[in-house]
Amino acid sequence: MNALVESIADFHFLRPWWLLVPLAALWLPWAVQRRGDVRRRWRGTIAPHLLEALVIGENRRRPLRPAHFTALLLALGAVAMAGPTWQRERPPFLSDKAPLAIAVDLTPTMDAIDISPTRLERAKLKVKALLARRDGGRTALYAYAGSTHLVLPLTDDPTLLQTFADALQTRIMPKPGKDTALAVQTIDSALAAESVPGTILLLTDGVEPAAVEALRAHARTARTEVVVLAIGTETGGPLRDRDGTAPALDTATLHALRDAGIAVATVTPDSDADVAWVQRHVQQHVEQAASPDTVRWHDAGWPLTIPIALLALLWFRRGWTIRWIVGLAVAVAIGTPQGGAWAQQVDAPRGWRFADLWLTHDQQGRRAFERGDFVEAAGRFDDPMWRGIAWYRAGKFDAAAREFERVSSPDGHFNLGNALAQQGKYQQAMAHFRLVLQLRPGWAPAQRNLALMQQLLDRRKQKSNDDEEAPDLPPDKVEFDGAKPPEPPENDKTQQGLVQQSAEMWMRAIQTSPTELLARKFALQQQGKP
């Protein structure tokens, strides 16, 4: 109900001046009826008492005439062109930047078999489904019980993430117990350096009551959002391959978390509705945190093209054809851009398409963009900003830069700086970020990117200095005049032995399974060793 009220409050038109067209739609039926009124045309020539007898064929009047449907068509078209909207549109770059940290509970109760095959294995399947929906989004993987450990930092490689997610087992955790507050605090500290607010997903079979207050305080103050996906049943179940029984889901604690402002849902074993719910929270969180001037309103006028097309079919019915429809069709055909006009707008010439009769070039580009066909989208967009965004998403940063150069707004210079930075042109990118800050002082994204460009330039300069050949290089070969080379000192022998031992240990670790590798890593971290 609240969402409906908010939608009604946000309802407005993007191009309200098109709403003047319905005035013409109201005038059209009256004008057509007036033009076809035979009595009015002959009233000044024929006596009124004779006119009624002389006029024939006007006794039968149809309530709906072509002019009425034309007026309705004009009204619908005007509303569609006015751009009705009531919800925000997700910016194209935010989905790629939204970080997600998945924290998997590895306490022994996750081995319960009340959820087939086990709670932990079901959590791994949900991780796989979520990574498929992330579409290259940056994701990190953590494991927690009595301690919290990083499995993989933020990465967009779903195969690597799934490999290590499959390796998680409850036996690899070095510290027993469960400390959810510590897990959230640790992950939140790691995500604090991200430019875009992140989301923490807890895949767990329960949250200890003592952690509710800590999560409540986190929800009030932190940038990151905590989402809990509870795995388990209300009856609990036995543990796999060991004695004991796992407790049921603590519904009271879950309700307390909801009251504290934490998003909580239970796993759906037979569908991925829970995974879709998690992904929506990730996107909504980053959208709400986005700068208002980077969020666009969604144009909801295009569905009106369906009734418009159905009404247009009536023009081909005998007796309903309006004379000027032929002229309108010729005008549309003449005004449609052909190969030469298309060639001036994009890199490659494009011919006429049937979709041009129904959709604008930008609408066609938007549909291709949403399908993920960014090259096709770039070839269809007329808007240089959107064409540049499509080339950027396709990895064609040089083409994207050429399009962004045609946009003189702060957003255009900002995107141009990003495209130049992707090509390694840090100096030029800095110039555009400085220009953005002149046009939009204090804008945080431009400030962060400017600082990042300076860091990259400093690193490049430092690397260039390190690559310079030192003046006192050792000789390529040392000759000892037939004598044996001197023996290395005793401490050098010890160092060589340590190096050899470390190499052997590394080779043995490579042959270890990922599960054993994680167990050793967590144990060393718990002992405070690097």
Short description:
With 530 residues, the chain is α/β, with parallel strands linked by helices. It contains 24 helices and twelve strands.
Structural overview:
- This protein is of the alpha/beta class and 530 residues long.
- The protein has helices spanning 2-10, 21-35, 38-42, 48-54, 66-82, 94-97, 119-134, 158-166, 180-191, 212-221, 251-259, 273-289, 305-313, 324-335, 339-345, 361-371, 374-380, 384-393, 397-404, 410-422, 426-439, 444-467, 490-510, 514-526, and strands spanning 12-13, 84-85, 88-89, 100-105, 139-144, 148-155, 199-204, 225-230, 237-238, 245-246, 263-266, 296-297.
- The protein has three domains: 2-89 and 301-311, no CATH class; 94-289, Rossmann fold; 349-465, Alpha Horseshoe (Serine Threonine Protein Phosphatase 5, Tetratricopeptide repeat), CATH 1.25.40.10.
- Helices cover 53% and strands 9% of the residues.
- A six-stranded mixed sheet has the order 6-5-4-7-8-11, with helices on both faces. Strands 1-2 form a two-stranded antiparallel ribbon. Strands 3-12 form a two-stranded antiparallel sheet.
- Strand 7 (199-204), helix 10 and strand 8 form a beta-alpha-beta unit.
- The model is unreliable at 330-349 and 469-495 (pLDDT under 50).
Contiguous helical run count:
24
CATH class of the largest domain: Alpha Beta
Low confidence ranges: 330-349, 469-495
Class inferred from helices and paired strands: alpha/beta
Number of strands: 12
Proper CATH architecture of the largest domain: 3-Layer(aba) Sandwich
Helix content: 40-55%
Across the major sheet, the strand order is: 6-5-4-7-8-11
Largest sheet: 6 strands, mixed
Assembly type of the chains comes to single chain
Strand content: 5-15%
- State the end-to-end CA separation: 53 Å
Q: Give the rounded overall mean pLDDT.
A: 78
Which overall shape is indicated by the principal axes computed on the Cα atoms? Answer: elongated
